[in-house]
Amino acid sequence: MGKYKDIMKETAAGTAGLKTHIAEVYDGFRTIYQAAYADGALSAKVKELMAVAIAVQEGCDGCVASHVRSAVRKGASAEEMAEAIAVAIQMGGGPASIYAAHAWSAYEEFAETVSGRSVT
Predict the structure, then answer these.
(1) Which of 8, 35, 75, 81 has a 20 to 30 Å separation from 42 between CA atoms?
(2) Average pLDDT of adjacent 10-residue blocks, the chain of 120 residues
């Protein structure tokens, strides 16, 4: 499949059981997510690109996978992704420059299947 697609699959499987125990928490998180990422003064795509930069800063593979996939689904180009990653590198210095490669690999993985509409 691919590293970042596998991360998405593993995360979904791992949280499925947990959701049955703390459904209210996940419902609340979903509500916040939907409100935060809705089109507004900033487009949903721009907000996802911002989240990619934060995911690089935090060093969170699951976050990178989720937000890169969402940005690709919202039409983020290679140039837009690269610029968002560049901001993360500038803000985070050396550690971010190393972790930026993770975000770029995720972009390539999800973007390669976008033309076939199979961005899972």
Answers:
(1) 8
(2) 89 90 96 97 98 94 96 97 95 86 92 63
Count of structural domains, the chain: 1
Range of the domain at 106: 3-115
For the chain, what is the mean pLDDT?
Answer: 91
CATH number of the domain enclosing 90: 1.20.1290.10
> Per-residue pLDDT tens for 13-44?
888 989 999 999 999 999 999 999 999 999 99
CA angle, 110 as apex, 74 and 118 as ends, to 5°? Answer: 80
How many Å is the Cα radius of gyration of the chain?
14
Contact 44, 38 (CB under 8 A): yes
Cα(112)–Cα(12) distance, integer angstroms = 22
- Provide the 3-class DSSP secondary structure of residue 81: helix
**Residue entry with tokens 């930026």:** 100
